[in-house]
Write a structure and sequence with these properties.
heterodimer; A: alpha+beta; 5 strands; elongated; B: alpha+beta; 16% strand
Amino acid sequence: MPEEVADVITSCERYWREAGLPRSTVAEMSAELDAHLRDAASEGKAPESVVGADLAGFAEEWARSQADEGRVLPTWEDVWARGRREGLGIGPWLVIAAIAAVIVLAIVVAPKEDSMDDVELFRWIWIGAVVFLGVAEMVTAGFFMLPFAVGAAAAATRAWFDVAIWAQFIVFIVVSIAALIGLQKFVRHEDEEQPMVGANRYVDKRATVLEEIDRVSGRGRVRMDTEDWRATTDGDEPIPVGAEVRVIEVRGTRLVVEDGR
Amino acid sequence: MCYTARQGSQMPVEHSSQLLKGVLDMCLLAVIAEEPSYGYEMVRKLRERGLALVSEGSIYPLLSRLQKQGLVEGFHVASSEGPQRKYYRIAAAGHQRLRHWADEWEALSMGVTSVLNGGAHA
């Protein structure tokens, strides 16, 4: 229970801050919510009984009531998407297109054979690019530069092996694109894991019966990890104290379990 | 004390909670008028009197608005178990508004009852 309460609090706090509510207001709301969640927990109630099934809606509505009249707040979605969309989007692709154009130009216009000096020079150019992009990456804290730093590093290795300059550029482009795509995949995965008070996370978890579970009389308590929950079962047989059970569903504030023995 | 959702036997939970939404701010104001209270306690008092909330946190946007409108005041009380609690007490304007809302409710519920009884006056 403490873990999930903490998750709910930090998610709401982050949203309220990003929505532009004053720090003192956010602190007050957070403390109020925390106290309520703790009181609920002490009576065996899950956070859902307080924040409802739609945590985003709850946080948004409370924020709207605190904000000045008529002010439009970002949505919960907006706030979570914001953190990762920085630096991605069309920008990097434009850079690649520009570089590709430069390459085509270089191949067409440049002399047929690269002198050894040129190739050596490019070793340092690529290394310089890696350093520059790496620093820029850390400073901007977006993911904009990272794929290109990776691409530049790959090109640098080719340069050390005295590969032709045009080939170095090709490596730079290809690796940068691959890194960008890989990064997008990584980012999208995080995007889907929004902090939510989801009931599904309990399915298939084990629990121990504290009070005999009897569907007919409506009694039943279990302990799951460190949390105590009201419990019920869909079967006709009561489940005795001490039995190991498996969670199959969360219904309201009760766990629906089945005998796991 | 167990937390159970009380439902009118004929009504699905959704419908009755929709009804409650319309009067919840008035009910909160009434609870606060009785004596200063904090969120969890208000929910408990409502439940004791037969008004169960599906989502307890829904009171907070309402309390926030009541406070903004100057109908209630928030104040903090040190708690022995941990951080301070935020309490709400009714303001003078709140007493006035509650009387007004209560009158509105009287009129409305009489009208509804009358309609349900086919126009016969209660």
